[in-house]
């Protein structure tokens, strides 16, 4: 078991040295070193499988320490495999980018037929311009309808105000005729004063709604 363990450690160190060589060569010349690294990693994997079997044959006093040493070798092996996979992925990306760059540089672009392009653009612009014009016309008509509706509401509120004012005047005259008390007259005036604020509030609210609609549609 000791000889296998030392052999695995020696392979780990040699594989790390192969990685140092791999960093110094170009991507086009790296295949032999990659194959060598993968072969060493496969050998270490095979040795670890044999060591796993031999660990359980060790005495109980040495089994824990032996298993720890084997696990350390397996960890180093997994780290080497991950490093190799990462290198291969980066190499593939570099080669792919290089091929795409060469394809782009070697590609010959052809000029479009000006007349055909102009016709398509004119037709497209005419279609979208007409569609945009129809949308604006519809929105403008909607805003005009809302303005007319708002004007009608304001006129109706104005008429209601005049009606309330006339009713207040008639009530005041009736009260004077009937000789109502000053307290009753003050209550009537207070109610008329409150109705005035309600009317003003309704007018302001309607104006705000109309202004918001005009802002939204324009």
From TrEMBL:
Predominant location: Golgi
Record protein name field: Golgi SNAP receptor complex member 2
Stored CDD domains: SNARE_GS27
GO terms, molecular function: SNAP receptor activity; SNARE binding
Residue stretches in coiled coil: none
Residues spanning the membrane: 197-217
Species name: Diploptera punctata
Protein family (similarity comment): Belongs to the GOSR2 family.
Entry keyword set: Golgi apparatus, Membrane, Protein transport, Transmembrane, Transmembrane helix, Transport
Location in the cell: Golgi apparatus, cis-Golgi network membrane
């Amino acid at each position: 078991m000791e000889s296998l363990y030392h052999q695995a450690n020696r392979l780990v160190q040699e594989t790390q040295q192969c990685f140092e060589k791999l960093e110094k060569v170009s991507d086009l010349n790296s295949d032999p070193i990659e194959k060598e690294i993968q072969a060493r990693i496969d050998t270490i994997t095979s040795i670890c499988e044999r060591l796993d079997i031999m660990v359980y044959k060790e005495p109980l006093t040495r089994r824990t320490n032996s298993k720890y040493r084997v696990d350390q070798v397996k960890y180093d092996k997994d780290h080497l495999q991950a490093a190799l996979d990462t290198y291969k992925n980066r190499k593939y990306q570099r080669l792919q980018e290089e091929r795409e760059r060469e394809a782009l540089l070697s590609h010959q672009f052809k000029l479009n037929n000006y007349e055909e392009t102009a016709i398509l653009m004119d037709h497209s612009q005419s279609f979208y311009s007409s569609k945009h014009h129809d949308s604006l016309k519809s929105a403008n008509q909607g805003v005009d309808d809302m303005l007319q509706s708002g004007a009608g509401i304001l006129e109706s509120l104005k008429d209601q105000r005049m009606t309330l004012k006339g009713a207040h005047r008639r009530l005041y005259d009736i009260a004077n005729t009937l000789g109502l008390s000053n307290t009753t007259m003050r209550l009537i005036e207070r109610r008329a004063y409150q109705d005035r604020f309600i009317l003003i509030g309704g007018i302001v609210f309607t104006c705000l709604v109309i202004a918001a609609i005009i802002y939204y549609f324009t």
